[in-house]
Design goal:
Helicase, Ruva Protein, domain 3, 324 residues, disordered N terminus, 11 strands
Length: 324
């Protein structure tokens, strides 16, 4: 394959890879045997996106979010989603001050660098929608007043796909706002043995010290924006999205927002790999985690047990790669 990468002489990511590796190693000290999941988490962070972790209980979903927040020394707020949670419990509320005789805004937990939404599908759709504005526009509007959120800002939500009783599936509009969905899965036996040795006596999270500041992460985000993407790669991303929209196995394909998230994630993935340009391999590697959770299969595909992940894999395998 011959591809015009458009590589620049002055790389904008000279300081990005060492800083990202420090953050990754800090998280690996807490979450063992999950290097790919950690790299995907860092990719979403540097792509200015949000992450949905969907897996069975007890595999470290919440621990991963806490380790990331502590590694970058950012503010982190945890929201336990329950059926009785209200939208104001997330965004904040205007309370009347008796002394000043005026309303003043009390910020909610969404005003943090890392917002951990634990078991997000256990809250009502009304409460889930409280995150829509903050995830897309990075702001919150309460009583007609708009408040900007901190930078960097990332929502990490977890949900259990097995136990569906008492849950509210995320609507398509909210799933589309998550840049990627990952599943941690069970650790390898060797990693689980190491976990028993390290976590059995004390929690490594208590010993984790910050290796970067939130302002440093924001500088890395700016550097990722400068990673070059050629026109051929952009056309390849559009072709992938169009293939999902015309697939007979899907009744809802990838949105234009999905194409944009795939572009941003590919930039971050390339930067973490030490490159200042994106190649089609980056797009192919991220197609499943970025696109699959947004797609809705047809009734026939559900009967035949064709999962969206499998549809994405087939599209990636069949779609022609870009050439000069």
């Amino acid at each position: 394959m011959v591809l015009d990468t458009g590589r620049q002489t002055d790389s904008p990511i000279d300081d990005l890879v060492p800083a990202a590796r420090r953050i990754g190693k800090a998280i690996e000290a807490v979450i063992e045997g999950k290097r790919d999941a950690i790299q995907l988490t860092l990719t979403v962070l540097l792509a200015e996106g949000h992450l949905l972790i969907e897996d069975v209980p007890g595999v470290g979903k919440t621990m991963l979010a806490k380790a990331l927040a502590r590694a970058i020394d950012g503010t982190v707020r945890r929201v336990q989603f329950t059926p009785d949670l209200l939208p104001s419990d997330i965004t904040g509320v205007s309370a009347y001050n008796q002394e000043r005789r005026e309303f003043e805004f009390k910020p909610g937990p969404v005003f943090a660098n890392i917002v951990l939404g634990d078991e997000i599908n256990r809250a009502s759709p009304k409460t889930q929608s409280a995150l829509l504005e903050s995830m897309e526009e990075r702001q919150v509007t309460v009583d007609g007043t708009t408040y900007a959120l901190q930078e960097p800002f990332m929502v990490i939500a977890t949900q259990n796909p097995v136990e569906m009783e008492g849950t509210y599936p995320l609507p398509e509009a909210q799933r589309d706002r998550f840049t990627a969905r990952i599943a941690l899965g069970y650790p390898p036996p060797a990693a689980e043995r190491d976990m028993l040795d390290t976590h059995g006596a004390a929690s490594p999270l208590d010993q984790l010290t910050p290796v970067a500041r939130a302002s440093d992460v924001q500088e890395l985000v700016v550097a990722v924006r400068r990673v070059h993407v050629s026109d051929q790669v952009k056309d390849y991303i559009i072709s992938l999205a169009n293939a999902t929209r015309t697939s007979p196995e899907l009744r809802l394909g990838a949105s234009p927002r999905a194409s944009l998230h795939l572009l941003r994630a590919s930039r971050a993935w390339a930067a973490l790999d030490g490159r200042d340009y994106v190649i089609p391999d980056d797009v192919q590697r991220l197609a499943r985690p970025v696109l699959a959770h947004r797609l809705l299969p047809t009734a026939e595909a559900i009967v035949e047990r064709h999962q969206p992940e499998q549809v994405v894999d087939r599209i990636v395998a069949q779609l022609a790669l870009p050439r000069r």
